[in-house]
Structure formats: C-alpha cells, structure tokens
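ligand=zinc ion
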Amino acid sequence: MSFKIDEILGQETALNYIEKYISDIEKIPPLLIFHGPNSVGKLSLAERFAYQVLCENGTGCNICGSCKSFMNHSHPDFIQFPFSTKVAIGDDKNPEEFTIRWLQNKRLNYKPHLSKKRLILIPDASLINDEAESALLKSLEEPPSHTRFIFIIDDIKKLRQTITSRAVLIPFQSLSIKLVKSISEKNEIYSEDFFGGSIFPYEIPPEAIQMIRSKVESSISDSIELIKLEEWIYVYKNNHPEWEEDFDFTEFLEFFSICLINSYSKSELKNKDIILEKIFEFKKDLHKKIPGLDNFLISELFFNLMNLV
Ligand SMILES: [Zn+2]
C-alpha cells in the first residue's frame, strides 16, 4: 500500500519543507503550521509526514511496528485531536482526553513508545480556545525534545501572533482546475469547476449538490422563480432526503451562495456586478453565528436579487 508524501500534488512549496524535515527529523521545529485553503492536501500531507517521521526505518516502510500501528490508527506516539470539537484546557485534576492538560499531564512528559518522536496533530487549530491556547504556549516554548506539534488552519490570521511567532509556517495553495479534475477522476471523487481549486470541500452528498445547483441555475434571472427558490430553501431546511446525514443549514447556505455566484457570473445580466457584491455580503455574514440571523439574511438577499434582475 502506498502512503507517500509525493502523492500530494500541486503543493511544491510545502513538499520542499517537508522533504527537508524528513531527511533530518532533528531539524523539525517544535511547531509546524500548515495553512491555506480547505481540501487542497494539508491533512493528507500531515498524515503522510507523520507516518514517515515515526517509521522505525525512516522511510514509511509499511512493515515495521510503527508503520503497522499507524495504519491501524493505534499508534501510541501519534496524537490526532478530533476534527470538530473545541480544544479546551481540561480539568485540573482529572482532565478529559484531548484537552491540553490531558496532553501535558498524561502524554508529553513520557517518552515515545515506538518511535523516536511523538507527533501531535491538531487538524483545525481555530478550535483551540483562549484558555487552552495560553496553557499550550508553555509546551510550545519548551517542548520535550521528542515531541513536535503540527497545526492545520485555513486562514493563518485566525491564530494569534503568540502562536504563529513560535512556528514555521508552511503555505498551501489552491490547486489548478485541471489538477482538481485529474485528482478527482483518479480517486472517483465528484467535482465541479466552481469548487475553486479544492478537492470536494463540502460535506454535502453529490446528489444534493447537483440538485441545489440546478435549482439555482433555473431560477436566477426571473423574480417569480426567485420567490419560489426562497420558499424552497425553507422547505429544504426541514426536509432534505438527498442529504439525510449531518445536514448543516449553514453549510447548505454557503454552498447555495457559491452556486448563485457561479450562475450569476456566467449570466449576461446588466446588474451582474452589484448582484455578485450582494451575494458576497450574504456569504460573509453567514458565519456570524447569531441565532435567527439566517432567516433575516436570506430574505434580505432575495429582496436584493428580485430588485436587481
Ligand atoms: Zn516503517
């Protein structure tokens, strides 16, 4: 089975750094931050990097005890925090798993079991809360010589300077549309041109993607159709047979606005630029997470669209 860093395509800059560190693991800095757009290979590269650094032969041999337990997701020296839970400081005396105090009291002080290093991967560093961050700073300043941290984040500005100043930042970039197509085809992953240089960046089932897309495309230039489209959004919020599992209304709206942007950019409407600006505003406000804001934003957006088409 192949699990090599050179499977990550279109990220030459990041690979240059990583190859250097693999050739001399003592040079790996205490904290690496992989930053750049979603779904372009940050996590895939981090995992492959860890696999090879931890390998007893330093090659990702697929045979040694380290490689085997890595592939079984049971490597004692590879600690990957969960994807979508806040990283908290944890209880003083009895810290829960995957909190900072748990890491510091129950893991960091001990030597690695199988490998020369222990790697700690936080796949979404924006989830580290303030209190946890302050507690973590100490470990980043003076990490045990056998421990290294990897943080992943889309926008580096989301992290405070106290963190970034202690790290080597490794930039990732959007992939070319051509590369997205070829990677998606090879791995049988659904893709659309407007995914914008990322490999399937949504948790949305492809059936739902196609349906949302065609609903939007057929409605954008007619105000009666736009009224129907707005009504449909509320129906879909409660009833979404194409997307039964993990339905997320914000993600739906995010994708919906991408479809609008894609369709209006291709249209010949004379107010196209103002329309696009209104959709960008909508998209930006979506993530403010104020209760009840969604409905207000949707009606404001449709009010604008109907007046502009
Ligand atoms: Zn190995």
